[in-house]
Design brief:
The chain has 126 residues and is of the alpha+beta class. It contains five helices and four strands. It has a single domain, classed as Ribosomal protein L30/S12 (60s Ribosomal Protein L30, Chain: A), CATH 3.30.1330. The C terminus is likely disordered.
Length: 126
């Protein structure tokens, strides 16, 4: 069972997300690994979350798209853990990565948001 997203996942979208991670890695801050990413999302500091669709077992990352939707944080899937790990500067694969400080990747993240037509304003719904 693959992860479900409310938008069409394209190769171009995945490539933009990986590019944003590469830029944020050197000019901003990223969190690597599902535990760190979950903490960043729960605290509301994540700007963009990227998950690898080939993660086994899927239960490891299954909660992230739902949690991101609740917190109004954009969650983008990529094909493999190896791609995601390489973008994050790791020699191993990585199941998920979150950008917590955009740095120079702010423009790329904004392009992704615009292309999806998402509203990522951080309004509290209380």
């Amino acid at each position: 069972m693959a992860l479900k997203f409310n938008f069409q996942v394209t190769k171009e979208l995945s490539d933009k997300a990986l590019g944003a991670i590469e830029v944020a890695r050197s000019t901003g801050k990223i969190k690597k690994g599902t535990n760190e990413v979950t903490k960043a999302v729960e605290r509301g500091v994540a700007k963009l979350v990227v998950v690898a669709q080939d993660t086994k077992p899927e239960e490891v990352i299954m909660h992230l798209p739902i949690l991101c939707e609740e917190k109004n944080i954009l969650c983008i899937p990529v094909a493999t853990k190896e791609e995601l790990g390489a973008a994050a500067g790791l020699q191993l694969g990585c199941a998920s990565v979150a950008i917590t400080s955009e740095g120079d990747s702010r423009k790329v993240i904004q392009e992704i948001v615009t292309s999806l037509g998402k509203d990522t304003s951080r309004e509290k719904k209380e």
